[in-house]
């Protein structure tokens, strides 16, 4: 889920979906403040608006206890999606409700809870059904005809004996065809086995037993979800009360999707502010420092000192410019604003342009740039992304190669993809650091052989651009001997 500035749940495109859920959805902060409630929850509790509900929380202690942060903290203490819990709630008019609560704690990158996203289902009717099941006489099923659920009688071996009501209009089952058939002939084997096991359990314990299962609806890639409750009807017979819970399950899936999206956005935000607060501020402070020295001490410095400070300013400016370019590209990827536009491109020419751009940095360290790609090697790819990948990997190789070394680029055509390599004979990378470099949740960097600064963001950007080309990236390295960055680009995008 995305969080808008006013604290409500959902992005603009998902807001209508959440508002139209038949299940109650709300968000509450760790301080106990209700920041969002959808229309279903507001109506469920008998209020006219979110402001009306918030005002009710301030004056109604019993209602406020229903939104208890301590309760939600207990639900999610094990740092995973909590199992649903049924609790008694109270409406504005004092009427009681039984709600099944689904609670998810949303945390930041440090593991601290920011707020709780909750979904509630009104199961008051189901509780009444259970009481009715236990209280009515075995021979008197007339009251069950008023229920919205399907009510079947099954034998201990799973044979449908009869349907005690006809409320199947909203389900795809034709209940008239069930009589005399086994669950094995009605449901898929896995579901049928599950039902047979729960029938035996209900007959053994005498308690209400519940299972959930899913079935195909007949529409491709669309499932219908069911909740089935079983209780003893009479000797070697059980009642099966079947309810369609598809809306609830789809809501749970959507909420989980929103939550995962929010976790990703929180991680992205943490990375961004880490870069801004540390990696970008440091070179800017360096620039200011050298500029102040030149401004204040110009008359006291000799030409060599002035040249040294000027060279430092140039090097820091290059690093800062490269960092800003990567930050902009990376932020565009994370926000979905960068488009993928593959076309036929000449790999050799692209590498040649990159070598022209990076030649000053390589010359300063007397590093040879070698392009072994054959001229007129064409691939179908997004040229801007490939340029960003190659310039990042080549610049990284220069950074970690000693004076007098080399950086070599190659491309080999395979059956289904092109295999690129960027090889250097530099200082190499340890196995531990290789794992850190391509980890999506870790920003890792180290200084180059000439103390060049880096952020580690360039490799993450490369990884995302490569994956957009249905490729992968991996690293082969030996400390003290050099490194090869490998990546593939699929021929068909």
Provide a short characterization of the protein structure:
With 493 residues, this protein is of the alpha+beta class.
Which band does the percent of strand residues land in?
15-25%
Mean pLDDT: 79
Our count of domains comes out at 4
Give the helices and strands as they follow along the chain: HEEHHHHEEEHEEHEEEHHEHEEHEEHHEE
Radius of gyration: 32 Å
The structure class reads: alpha+beta
Question: What's the N-to-C terminus distance?
Answer: 30 Å
CATH topology of the largest domain: Heat Shock Protein 90
Low-confidence sequence ranges: 1-14, 447-455
Strand order of the largest sheet: 2-1-5-4-3
Shape-level CATH architecture of the largest domain:
2-Layer Sandwich
Number of helices: 13
Largest sheet: 5 strands, antiparallel
Approximate shape: elongated
Spell out the CATH superfamily of the largest domain: Histidine kinase-like ATPase, C-terminal domain
Give a count of the beta strands, DSSP E runs of length 2 or more: 17
Question: Mind telling me the CATH class of the largest domain?
Answer: Alpha Beta
Helix content: 40-55%
Provide a descriptive summary of the structure in words.
The protein has 493 residues and is α+β, with helices and mostly antiparallel strands. It has 4 domains: 12-122, PAS domain (Beta-Lactamase), CATH 3.30.450; 136-244, PAS domain (Beta-Lactamase); 253-334, Orthogonal Bundle (Helix Hairpins), CATH 1.10.287.130; 339-493, Histidine kinase-like ATPase, C-terminal domain (Heat Shock Protein 90, 2-Layer Sandwich), CATH 3.30.565.10. Helix content is 41%, strand content 24%. It is built from 13 helices and 17 strands. The chain has helices at residues 12-19, 39-44, 50-59, 61-66, 69-75, 124-135, 189-205, 246-297, 303-334, 347-364, 383-399, 431-437, 457-468, and strands at residues 24-29, 34-37, 85-90, 96-107, 113-122, 150-155, 160-163, 209-216, 223-234, 237-244, 343-346, 368-371, 378-381, 406-413, 417-424, 473-478, 482-490. A 5-stranded antiparallel β-sheet has the order 2-1-5-4-3, with helices on both faces. Strands 7-6-10-9-8 form a 5-stranded antiparallel β-sheet. A hairpin with a 3-residue loop joins strand 14 (406-413) and strand 15. The longest helix has 52 residues, at 246-297. Residues 1-14 and 447-455 have low confidence and may be disordered.
């Amino acid at each position: 889920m995305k969080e808008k500035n006013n604290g409500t749940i959902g992005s603009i495109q998902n807001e209508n979906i959440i508002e139209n859920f038949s299940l109650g959805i709300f968000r509450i902060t760790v301080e106990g403040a209700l920041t969002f409630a959808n229309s279903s929850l507001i109506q469920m509790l008998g209020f006219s608006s979110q402001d009306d509900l918030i005002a009710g929380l301030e004056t109604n202690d019993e209602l406020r206890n229903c939104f208890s942060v301590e309760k939600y903290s207990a639900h999610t203490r094990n740092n995973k999606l909590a199992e649903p819990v049924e609790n008694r709630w109270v409406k504005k008019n004092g009427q009681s409700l039984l709600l099944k609560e689904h609670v998810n704690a949303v945390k930041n990158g440090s593991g601290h809870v920011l707020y709780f996203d909750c979904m509630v289902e009104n199961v008051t009717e189901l509780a009444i059904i259970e009481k009715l099941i236990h209280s009515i006489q075995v021979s008197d099923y007339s009251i069950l005809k008023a229920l919205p659920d399907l009510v079947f009688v099954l034998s201990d071996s799973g044979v449908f004996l009869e349907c005690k009501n006809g409320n199947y209009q909203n389900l795809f089952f034709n209940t008239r065809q069930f009589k005399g058939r086994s669950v094995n002939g009605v449901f898929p084997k896995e579901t049928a086995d599950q039902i047979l096991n729960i029938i035996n359990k209900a007959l053994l314990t005498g308690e209400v037993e519940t299972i959930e299962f899913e079935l195909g609806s007949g529409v491709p890639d669309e499932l219908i979800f069911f909740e089935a409750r079983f209780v003893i009807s009479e000797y070697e017979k059980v009642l099966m009360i079947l309810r369609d819970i598809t809306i609830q399950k789809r809501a749970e899936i959507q909420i989980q999707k929103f939550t995962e999206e929010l976790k990703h956005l929180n991680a992205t935000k943490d990375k961004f502010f880490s870069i801004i607060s540390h990696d970008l501020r440091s070179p800017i402070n360096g620039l200011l420092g050298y500029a102040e020295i030149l401004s204040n001490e110009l008359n006291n410095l000799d030409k060599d000192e002035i040249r040294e400070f000027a060279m430092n300013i140039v090097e820091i400016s290059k690093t800062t410019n490269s960092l800003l370019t990567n930050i902009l590209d990376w932020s565009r990827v994370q926000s979905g604003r960068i488009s993928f536009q593959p076309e036929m491109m000449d790999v050799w020419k692209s590498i040649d342009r990159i070598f022209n751009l990076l030649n000053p940095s390589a010359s300063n360290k007397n590093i040879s740039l070698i392009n072994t790609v054959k001229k007129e090697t064409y691939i179908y790819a997004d040229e801007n992304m490939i340029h960003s990948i190659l310039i990042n990997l080549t610049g990284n190789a220069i950074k970690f190669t000693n004076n007098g070394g080399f950086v070599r680029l190659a491309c080999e055509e395979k059956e289904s993809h092109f295999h690129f390599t960027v090889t250097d004979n530099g200082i190499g990378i340890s196995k531990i650091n290789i794992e850190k470099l391509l980890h999506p949740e870790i920003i890792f960097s180290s200084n180059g052989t000439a103390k060049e600064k880096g952020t580690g963001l360039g490799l993450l950007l490369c990884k995302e651009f490569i994956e957009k080309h249905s490729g992968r990236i991996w690293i082969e390295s030996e400390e003290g001997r050099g490194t090869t960055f490998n990546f593939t680009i699929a021929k068909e995008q």
